[in-house]
């Protein structure tokens, strides 16, 4: 392929017009950039049995419309995943996998165990991806510029490490008052700018009883 590989840690395939992840992707790469290409599908394992050493994976600005992370059992130390600027309308984290029986829970419970930052900005999401709590190390989630319409009480359930939520420029009109109640480490920002909020926000703010929390609400209907 036209990718550039430094022989040790960095793989750069940005702007190479590839339509799939190269089969000869080095499993020892720590950072891999596949941004600005024509990739339509991405399967983490894709038939590969060996574990990748990736810490940073950039798949932004491609043509991905559906993506399941339930197959990502070969990325044990991945810390950042950038999926921004695609056409993702379905992001699956907890889909039941037929035929696995009791093994299903063991696989899902270890889904991307080191992932800290998930970026899904500028996509076509209409809801918060179900199962974010399965990403047990998740600290930052960027979902600005989608089509998310409401936030339900279980959308961030079990996201015990979450510190930073960016929901700017969506179509959010409703947020359940208990949505953020159990996020005890939420301390950086809840960004709700440029939405269509028409709910009694004080109910939410009362539940956000954290001294270091910042909440951005400008350019909302409220």
UniProtKB/TrEMBL annotation:
Identification of the protein by name: LRC66 protein
Gene: Lrrc66
Keyword Disulfide bond carried by entry: no
InterPro entries for the chain: Leu-rich_rpt (IPR001611), Leu-rich_rpt_typical-subtyp (IPR003591), LRR_dom_sf (IPR032675), LRR_TM_domain-containing (IPR050541)
Gene3D superfamilies: Ribonuclease Inhibitor
Keywords: Leucine-rich repeat, Repeat
Signal sequence bounds: none
The UniProt record lists the keyword Repeat: yes
GO cellular component, one term: plasma membrane
Superkingdom field: Eukaryota
One Pfam family hit: LRR_8
């Amino acid at each position: 392929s036209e990718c550039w590989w430094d022989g040790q840690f960095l793989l750069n395939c940005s702007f190479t017009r590839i339509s799939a992840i190269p089969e000869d992707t080095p499993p020892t790469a720590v950072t891999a950039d596949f941004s600005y290409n024509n990739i339509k599908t991405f399967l983490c394992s894709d038939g590969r049995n060996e574990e990748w050493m990736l810490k940073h994976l950039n798949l932004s600005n491609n043509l991905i419309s559906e993506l399941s992370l339930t197959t990502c059992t070969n990325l044990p130390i991945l810390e950042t995943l950038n999926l921004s600027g695609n056409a993702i309308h379905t992001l699956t984290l907890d889909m039941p996998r037929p035929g696995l029986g009791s093994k299903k829970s063991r696989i899902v419970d270890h889904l991307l165990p080191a992932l800290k930052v998930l970026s899904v900005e500028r996509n076509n999401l209409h809801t918060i991806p179900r199962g974010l709590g399965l990403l047990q190390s998740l600290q930052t989630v960027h979902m600005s510029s989608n089509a998310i319409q409401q936030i339900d009480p279980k959308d961030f359930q079990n996201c015990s490490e979450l510190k930073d939520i960016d929901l700017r420029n969506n179509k959010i009109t409703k947020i359940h008052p208990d949505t953020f109640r159990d996020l005890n480490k939420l301390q950086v920002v809840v960004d709700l700018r440029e939405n269509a909020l028409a709910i009694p926000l004080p109910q939410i703010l009362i539940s956000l009883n954290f001294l270091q929390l910042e909440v951005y609400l400008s350019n909302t209907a409220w």
